[in-house]
Amino acid sequence: MEIIYINENNSGERLDKYLVEFLKEEYDFSRSYVQSLIKEGYVKVNDKIVSSNYNLLDKDVINIDPKQPTQLDAKAQNIDFEIIFEDDDIIVLNKPNDLVVHPAVGNPDNTLVNGLLYKIKNLSSIGGVLRPGIVHRLDKKTTGIMIVAKTDKAHKALTHMLAENKIHKEYLAIVHGVIEPNKGTIDAPIGRDKRDRKKMCVTDINSKHAKTHFEVINRFENHTLIKCVIETGRTHQIRVHMAFIKHPVLGDHLYSFKEDKSLEFGQYLHSHKIKFNHPINNKEIELSCDLPKEFNDKIKEIEK
């Protein structure tokens, strides 16, 4: 099951239209299929069945239980990843490079979820059989910190915290070119690229508010190491925003230069630090994880 908390940025949107965009990254459902989910009661707003043309309101809560497009079932597999923090309610882990977060069409196994099922006895059931405990995701080629919920109560609280921007996330990235200002903010809406549905882009058409703050850590001859803090959590946000200001993330096969596709590591983007209040006991938690070896090796290479 997926739980979505609506805020003022999405208020006024039609339910079916909003869900098509929200579910596209995971399922790429057609609008007619989403409408059938709503009609058959797989979607509820504030625990009530509504019509496809329902206009969303601020503070609405959507519960989605999408029928799986394939008969997939996540199985436990021994996948290598580091657990940074764990208690009875949550896990904070360091996701390695080249690891998909959860099973889907084209990636039925060898995902982070398969590894979680192998290492952890109890995970939140809200994400269903394919996404147990998954509160948020990182792209396959993005490394670093992720939070996983062990209980449904923690999962619901974390989802709400993410929607309300109450989880502080810092990323490190190597980008092309030398950024002149020491700090900056990119405030530009992000939506689906009409020319390539796999990509996102800065656009005013069917887009959502997105804001990224960046700070220069080190400048090199042809690259810059930066820290990014995101106020919103749009798909590919940092990658899209840095490409928008003509400083794409090094190694990004989707938004950077053609020559970057030869870099097997993928984008040099790392979820470095996270700060939030524990969803159950409200104690402040601040955690960080080191850069992967390949990232540090690339820094040594470009600083010569």
Q: Per DSSP, what share of the residues sits in E-state strands of 2 or more residues?
A: 25-35%
Please state the structural category: alpha+beta
Could you say which overall geometry the principal axes of the C-alpha atoms support?
Answer: globular
CATH class of the largest domain: Alpha Beta
* Fourth-level CATH superfamily of the largest domain: Pseudouridine synthase
Which quaternary structure do these chains form?
A: single chain
Number of domains: 3
Task: Give the % helix.
Answer: 10-25%
Number of H- or I-type helical stretches: 6
Q: Based on the structure given, which CATH architecture of the largest domain is correct?
A: 2-Layer Sandwich
Strand tally, please? Answer: 14
Overall average pLDDT:
90
- For the termini, the CA-CA separation is 50 Å
- CATH fold descriptor of the largest domain: Pseudouridine synthase
Biggest sheet record: 9 strands, mixed
Q: Evaluate the radius of gyration.
A: 19 Å
Could you state the order of secondary-structure elements as H and E? Answer: EHHEEEEHEHEEEEEEHEEH
Spans where pLDDT lies below 50 across 5 or more residues: none
